[in-house]
Amino acid sequence: MPEAAAKAKPKESKNIRIVKDATCTFCGCVCDDMELTVDLDAHRITKAKRACVLGRAWFYEHTLEERPVVLIDGKEASLDEGLDEAARILVDAKFPITYGLSDCPCEAQRVAVDIMDTINGNIDTTTSVCHGPSGMAFQGVGESTATLGEIKNRADLVIYWGGNPAESHPRHFTRYAVTPKGMFIPNGKKDRTVVLIDVRKTPSTPVADIFVRVKPGKDFELLWALRALVKGRKISEDIEEQTGVPRETLDDLVQRMKNCQFGVLFMGMGLTMTRGRHFNSGAVYSLASDLNEFTHFVAKPVRGHGNVTGADNVVAWQTGYPFGVNFNRGYPRFNPGEFTTSDVLARGEADAAMIVASDPASNFPKKAIEHLEKIPVISMDVKETHTTRLSRVRFAVATYGINTGGTVYRMDDVPISLRPAFDSPFPTDQEILEGIRKRVKKILSGSKARVAA
Amino acid sequence: MILVPGRSQKQGTSLNKGKLKDEYLAVTTTAELNEQDMRRLKLSNGDKIRLKSDVGQAVVTCTGKKEEDLPSGMIFIPYGPSSSQLMGSDTAASGMPMSKHMQVEVTKVKG
Q1: Distance of alpha carbon A25 from alpha carbon A365, whole angstroms
Q2: Cα of B41 to nearest chain A Cα, Å
Q3: Closest Cα to residue B28, out of B44, B17, B39, B36?
Q4: Considering chain A, what is the average pLDDT of its residues?
Q5: What is the CATH number of the domain that holds A290?
Q6: Looking at the predicted structure, is the pLDDT value of residue B65 above 70?
Q7: Residues A157 and A261 placed together within one structural domain of the fold
Q8: Chain A partners of B77 at a C-beta cutoff of 8 Å?
Q9: What does pLDDT average to over chain B?
Q10: Fewer Cβ atoms within 10 Å of its own Cβ: the N or the C terminal residue of chain A?
């Protein structure tokens, strides 16, 4: 090539790596069909083929930032000093808690459970302020369920209730439940009826064939009326006044649900975070079960964080319960409202907190945040947050799925292995947690073992 | 009025840049109100309003939405530090604070 032509060519890094079938861990869709172009010199992902708008932001914005690996009381410290201080805080506490865990791999989550088991602490995940109420309902009434693959291949009626996937899970529509062609859905969206039920119109609404607006806080009444109609019972004549939904709309919906080949009801946090909470989720699960008398019908919660479903699974494997677990008596106890983090903090009970990959200081109730500000906090996060700022010991960690491997669970409980894009000089969550565990066990072995309260 | 915090696309993309960055803070302090409610409260796009609940208050910027998109009496805001200031801690033995159905008073912040 002539020298002049070579000079005119834009400067490109020659150290490019292509990662096929990489996984996006931003949301619970955990799409594992990414093709990443990685500039290994710049330590950044320059292209994320097939990623949605949220996935692109996730991949492009997670580069290597100039941050100390460890800060103790705002001052830079060595990794060993950080691990020593974290272990000391946890062992000295009478009511230590661990919270978060939904944005790190299962391999890190299980170490966190072990640490809390060892020191008779309290372990909870972001599930408690996500689909924790659905987890409670699931225990109460069971779940008629399916994988997203089955839904893609079979569902001809897709109902979203209290969710806005276009903005929170953009590929839920395009990869799993609305537009893709499936084995028994050869024409994709043309073969499906999509219903969206919500208190307001959102960017998801245009995707739906039918939009049903329910009055805020009246989801349970509407769900219970649908259950009654499915069973052929009478319902109150003032149902429209109560719920905002006309009777003819309910009748039409019931007919569609009973006559479809394979129906699915996806529930968002518009059901779990509002009046009714676990009763709303229980009504959804019960409605799906009722409909199996007529056709095949399933219900699934649409999960938020990349590995929040993994957190449920790991905590359940190790303790028997999915979230809100306390080891204070030397054995696991589960009691939402008592051992869930928002409550434990708001009541001022916890005297030390280890927060892994989460930011309760920006999204918990005011009273809980005020208590978090008073106690020693250990935090692990890839970026600075309100929680890392108030922490006594902060660890900067590598980004899971981008810098580290491991296992995550998609929202339908399907485990997926991660394929990292480039190395990070920061330690992983798992390495930090293993370092803390080692030191905790050493401190306890050198003194009298922690006695159950 | 009823405040409904939730996810928005801009909130999702901006949190990847950083929750302490201006973009995220701007997104999570912008509330959507029905245009009729805004007229009734003598508000214009970009005005500051104070949202006050039983437990706290927050000052945010308001922007109008059409009646057909957001019913009268409802406010939407991308969740974050502002909505947390208004959230009560009672979880009714569920672990879940009432995060999407908060009663708030709205007043215009002058100046």
Answers
A1: 26
A2: 21
A3: B17
A4: 95
A5: 3.40.228.10
A6: yes
A7: yes
A8: none
A9: 95
A10: N
Residues of chain B contacting residue A311, judged by C-beta atoms under 8 Å apart:
none
Are B86 and B3 contacting, i.e. CB atoms less than 8 angstroms apart? yes
Q: What tens digit of pLDDT does each residue of A301-326 get?
A: 999 999 999 999 999 999 999 999 99
* Interface residue ranges in chain B relative to chain A, Cβ cutoff 8 Å: 2, 4, 6-9, 12-14, 16-20, 55-56, 68-71, 74, 76, 79-81, 83-89, 91-101
Predicted pLDDT of residue A65:
87
For chain A, residues with pLDDT lower than 70 are: 1-12, 448-453
By C-alpha distance, the chain B residue nearest A133 is B94
- Residue ranges making up the domain that contains A328: 70-130+306-402+425-446
Are B7 and A346 within 8 A, CB to CB? Answer: no
- Tell me: pLDDT of B35 over 90: yes
Strands of A157-161's sheet in order across: A210-213, A193-198, A157-161, A262-267, A296-301
The pLDDT, as a whole number, for residue A12 is 67
Tokens of B99: 């995060």
Q: What does the pLDDT read at residue B25?
A: 94
The residue-averaged pLDDT of B79-106 equals 94
Binary contact (A346, B2; C-beta < 8 A): no
> Which domains are assigned to chain B?
2-108 (2.40.40.20)
What sections of B63-106 are H helices per DSSP?
A: 81-84
Q: Is residue A14 part of a domain?
A: no
ipTM at complex level: 0.95
Contact yes or no for B76/B43 (Cβ under 8 A): no
